[in-house]
Hints:
Blueprint: E1 6-7, H1 17-27, H2 45-62, E2 68-73, H3 76-88, E3 94-99, H4 102-111, E4 116-122, E5 145-149, E6 169-173, E7 190-194, E8 205-210, H5 227-232, H6 242-257, H7 261-280, E9 286-287, E10 299-304, H8 310-319, E11 322-323, E12 334-337, H9 344-361
Parallel strand pairs: 1-11, 3-4, 3-5, 5-6, 6-7
Antiparallel strand pairs: 2-8, 7-8, 9-10, 10-12
Helix pairs in contact: 1-6, 2-6, 3-4, 7-9
4'-deoxy-4'-aminopyridoxal-5'-phosphate is lined by residues 11, 76-78, 103, 149, 153, 173, 175-176, 194.
Amino acid sequence: HQDRLFNFAAGPATLPEKVLLKAQSELYNWRGSGMSVMEMSHRGKEFLSIIQKAESDLRTLLNISDDYSVLFLQGGATTQFAAIPLNLVSPSDTVDFIVTGSWSDKAFKEAQKYSKPSTIWSGKSEKYTKIPSFHDLEQNPDAKFLHICANETIHGVEYKDYPSPKNGLLVADMSSNFCSKPVDVSKFGLIYAGAQKNVGPSGVTIVIIKKDLIGNAQEITPVMLDYKIHADNNSLYNTPPCYGIYMCGLVFEDLLDQGGLVEVEKKNEKKAEILYNAIDGSNGFYRCPVEKSVRSLMNVPFTLEKSELEAEFIKEAAKENMVQLKGHRSVGGMRASIYNAMPLAGVEKLVAFMKDFQARNA
Ligand code: PMP
């Protein structure tokens, strides 16, 4: 589609073309129901079929067992920064955080309001370019959970395997690598993710939580943040983000059609490989600050040795229909987000442009 840009935004982000066209074809009159998904009762049989299919497809994709609830919530991952301590611990409980970038730091700060978090490792002094090695980590002996951010969207560091906490449960923010590869859900007490990077539009937040953790929320927990309320009501306690859930459902179907997350991961590895190779093979013209072993397959930050050319790089790329390549305002440089829905052709085009830009400016 010539009128579509290659959108390298970190989120909201590019969605699969097939999914958008399917949504378009169903927008006006969803499957003969005489109305759009936006207009339906969230308690009618049509929408119930949509949310149930979305949940069951997500369960298939991630191989989620019946020991876990899957919740479709609102408020973004940011709301979960508060909901997690409110639901899982009491105000005097100790919880551990590994801080690998801006997002885990935000989660840590919010948890200070509802628990006693401590940062057991921080990558701040190394500008968030690393993930710690797990056997060196000293956890608090009475920690109730260990919180990690599986993929730092701004800094581009991603866990390649997960720590097994000695103390407490493992809790992970997977906002920016959700459904990008297979995950052993059984290792986690709770996984959460905003939808707007890999699986849908903003407005839907997915929580996968072990059922036996539900039902112990602090007294002050707002009803909208109480997992028990949402679990008991199958995510329909109040009006859910119906259209967003429908879109997530279409994305889950598409991921299954592609052969599931094993196949999706292979494509993501290929895309990331050609982009990192272009950076590393540029004789220092481009540079990625992240330690090689933990480079994200989803968010690729890079800088130009001649940093004065960065604005020109971004401008020229946009002229060639590659947009949203500017790095986060907190770190500068460039960032290419290459989520599931970014086609290989988009990354190939970016790499060709990078080589050409270097040839003209080296
Ligand atoms: N965690 C991560 C890893 C993120 O990338 C983001 C959003 N960029 C958030 C949390 C916050 O998500 P939201 O904007 O949905 O609240």
